[in-house]
Amino acid sequence: MARKPHAQRCRNCEEREMKSSRLPSSANDSTLIDPSLTLIRIGEVMSIVGLARPTIYKLMNEPESEFPKTVKLTNSSARGAPVAWVLSEVQAWARGRIEARDEVAA
């Protein structure tokens, strides 16, 4: 008896694949996404700013860093409760770091 390919055997493969993709393929059109209303999780933040999780949380506690604050995704006050960041704020912070570099170079 020939085995079915993994994708046919696994009921959750398609669901897992959808979860792993950040945005639907139609979202490649920038007019569909408003960065000021788009919430991103820590993995995307790390990818955008190029910093590790502990460094990001450290920067959040340093007012002079001006790192964006999180948005609570639930009413839970427990440590480890889900949070996200506003995409446009993270992008603006990264842009500010680039501009600061360019000012020093000038």
UniProtKB/TrEMBL annotation:
Domain of life, source organism: Bacteria
Cited Pfam families: Phage_AlpA
Biased composition (Basic and acidic residues): 11-20
Protein name: Transcriptional regulator, AlpA family
InterPro entries: AlpA, Prophage_regulatory_activator
Region Disordered, residue ranges: 1-29
